[in-house]
Write a structure and sequence with these properties.
With about 140 residues, the protein is mostly beta strands. It is built from one helix and eight strands, in the order αββββββββ.
């Protein structure tokens, strides 16, 4: 079986991926005074106002689950041994929506919507950690 696929590293997303490897969450924020939104995924301009001035800021790696699914048919064979994979959409306390795997095995799905989560950075493949989510009490 092959290694897990990795995101393609570019000059735009390198700060985010490097921060994941260092164990913290780094996101972009729009510098337009009428906007100021924190955004995810890394981009060259703000998706809300179109502003081209963005800065990187460390943000709290916490939020709440707003949607989820159980993946039963992965897009890559390397994930077959982990099925079903709980995949969540999380609204971060910092504002943006981010997606990822919930590391807890699900015994039931009740109470998952709105549940607080914390990001943990786990080895995804050789040389790259990515954000995963853990349920908080």
């Amino acid at each position: 079986m092959s290694e897990k696929p990795l995101p393609r590293t570019t000059q735009i997303n390198r700060p985010f991926l490097d921060a994941c490897n260092d164990g913290y969450l780094l996101l972009q924020r729009c510098l337009d005074p009428d906007c100021g939104k924190t955004i995810f995924y890394p981009r060259v301009c703000c998706p809300y106002c179109g502003g081209g001035e963005l800065e990187w800021n460390e943000v709290e790696p916490a939020g709440r689950i707003v949607s989820f699914t159980l993946v039963h048919r992965p897009q890559h064979e390397v994930f077959l041994d982990n099925l079903p994979v709980p995949f969540v959409a999380v609204e971060l306390d910092a504002g943006p929506l981010i997606y990822g795997e919930l590391v807890h095995p699900l015994t039931h799905e009740d109470g998952l919507l709105g549940a607080p989560v914390q990001i943990v950075f786990r080895n995804h493949a050789a040389g790259q950690k990515l954000p995963y989510f853990e349920l908080q009490e």
